[in-house]
Amino acid sequence: xxxxxxxxxxxxxxxxxxxxxxxxxxxxxxxxxxxxxxxxxxxxxxxxxxxxxxxxxxxxxxxxxxxxxxxxxxxxxxxxxxxxxxxxxxxxxxxxxxxxxxxxxxxxxxxxxxxxxxxxxxxxxxxxxxxxxxxxxxxxxxxxxxxxxxxxxxxxxxxxxxxxxxxxxxxxxxxxxxxxxxxxxxxxxxxxxxxxxxxxxxxxxxxxxxxxxxxxxxxxxxxxxxxxxxxxxxxxxxxxxxxxxxxxxxxxxxxxxxxxxxxxxxxxxxxxxxxxxxxxxxxxxxxxxxxxxxxxxxxxxxxxxxxxxxxxxxxxxxxxxxxxxxxxxxxxxxxxxxxxxxxxxxxxxxxx
Length: 352
Description:
Layout: H1 2-30, H2 37-59, H3 66-87, E1 92-93, E2 96-97, E3 104-109, E4 113-118, E5 137-144, H4 146-149, H5 159-170, E6 175-182, H6 188-201, E7 206-211, H7 231-239, H8 245-255, H9 259-279, E8 285-289, H10 295-304, E9 309-311, H11 331-347
Parallel strand pairs: 5-6, 5-7, 7-8, 8-9
Antiparallel strand pairs: 1-2, 3-4
Helix pairs in contact: 1-2, 1-3, 3-7, 5-11, 6-9, 9-10
């Protein structure tokens, strides 16, 4: 029995060292503004602790053999992964995964600076709101990834806050509410689910989906995989973070697809947007593409859109609209995008 306890302790410490080592390496790779010293020191401490237990087992004449250690480690990983799938806290809005409700996220990236992001009870960034729309209110919904979530900007500089101010200025006296349904790390499969949930539950007067192509053409929809059996959730458990070697490999493999495969992926999901709209009354839809470097992207999107849906056309966006060497919108960029979307909404006759 003592031999198994020694083996269990060593296995847990080695798993902890693996997670800390990955945290240090991913901090280097992602450029996060966190010191790599702490995770590397912890990784070394866990390894030293495992060695100490191994020597202690030998002195107690309860030697932990390599075979016993491997067996114990596999048991620990199997039980831990099963527990992860059973108890990992995943919050959904409709079929899409959101952030943890009422979470406060502290971020410090060198290119973005320090920011605090507050999440409401529905798991989205921004102030509290009700599902039921107040009478006489124009309600818009914005959908996207971290670009819409507002990574790198303050609460009053996000696209939803900026668009709401712009529309209020255009229609003085009209109550305007813009709900932010941006989810960090999501892409087009999640946008379909968010559009479906928004249409079913929020009664929007219009929806704007912001596409960051080709980034949103990734086949790995990370948030939705956290509680599903598979390689993504396994590696996230194994190394303690969604930033791990498997994620990097999957993203590179997705980027390596042919242009025709990417365009087919885009076509399928824009068609899914239209399917949702036809099933639920054709809510006015605006598609905003941050970058239109490849005209085939815009053409593919436009071909799939039905009545009441349109692409927000614009000239090439200036570099000042995006954080240098980061790519997320600046406050100035969100003001620019809000003006473009607001003009498109007004031309479409959505505003009273």
